[in-house]
Amino acid sequence: MDWKLELIFVPVSDVDRAKDFYVNKVGFNADFDERPGGGIRFVQLTPPGSACSICIGEGLTDAPPGTAPSMQIVVSDIQAAHDQLKANGVDVSDVDVQPWGHFVNFADPDGNKWALQYIPSRPNG
User: What are 33's strand-pairing partners?
Assistant: First the structure.
């Protein structure tokens, strides 16, 4: 039996602002944005090529905005990912080269922390 991580809840204060950030600045796909009722808004966003999505919205979690655990995405070209984010207006760190991988850090408008990682020893990052 497979166990697949497919959705992570990310608490945000302004759903439209967060959706704009993730879609138009970071490059996630907007998969779903619905209000099924009961004060709930469910927005699902997926990084290109990922099998795991994030969910933002209203009425989904009691966690305060900006308190998601640090999240990490593996990329095949850390410099291209850095340059894309920077060109889109994301405040990103410089590329941090470590023996175990190369990293770029950024945060969403609420302070939820992200790291991009490139693993040189692994095909396609």
Answer: 43
Assign residue 76 a region (left: φ > 0; alpha: ψ between -120 and 50; beta: otherwise).
alpha
- Using CA atoms, how far residue 109 sits from 10, 67, 86, 100, 114, in Å, is 12, 12, 15, 29, 12
41-56, pLDDT tens digit by residue? 999 999 999 999 999 9
pTM above 0.90, yes or no: yes
Q: What angle do CA 54, 119, 124 make, to 5 degrees?
A: 75
Length of the chain: 125
State the Cα torsion 108-112-113-116 to the nearest 10°: -50
Residue ranges of domains in the chain, CATH in brackets: 1-61 (3.10.180.10), 70-124 (3.30.720.110)
